[in-house]
Amino acid sequence: MGPLAVLNQRRPQPPSAMTSKPSENQPPKAAKAMVSKPDEMENEVVEFISAIDEFKRRNMVKHLPLGSVLEVVRGLGYASGVRSKDDEQRVQKAIDDYRETHSRLFPNWSEVWHVLRELGYQRSA
Predict the structure, then answer these.
(1) Mean pLDDT to the nearest integer, 20-45
(2) Each residue of 79-90: pLDDT tens digit?
(3) Which of 21, 27, 43, 64 might form a disulfide with 68, Cβ 3.0–4.6 angstroms?
(4) Would you say the pTM of this structure is higher than 0.70?
(5) DSSP state at residue 106
(6) Which intervals carry biased composition (Polar residues) (predicted)?
């Protein structure tokens, strides 16, 4: 059998035949991240991101520690229903849980905002 005969025998398989069945040992897929396009963002999210950017420019820093993020949030008039010394640790745990659930090593600011809102941060009257 020559090389041309071998080539003629190999025919492409349809896409359904190439996909494998999911194995029971595979980990479950991560939840979809809450990434928003700028024109789909709520005003609160845009205000939060703008305040973060302003804080970074004013203090000439690239990265913000969580304490500074919470300072910006409080400066916008938001507070959580639970006020305690462990607030920063509670937020850090929630962000870590979000990272793990959504397979996001570095969540963007809109995702951080949604985590804060889920923790009960609301604008105080």
Answers:
(1) 64
(2) 887 767 788 999
(3) 64
(4) no
(5) S
(6) 16-26
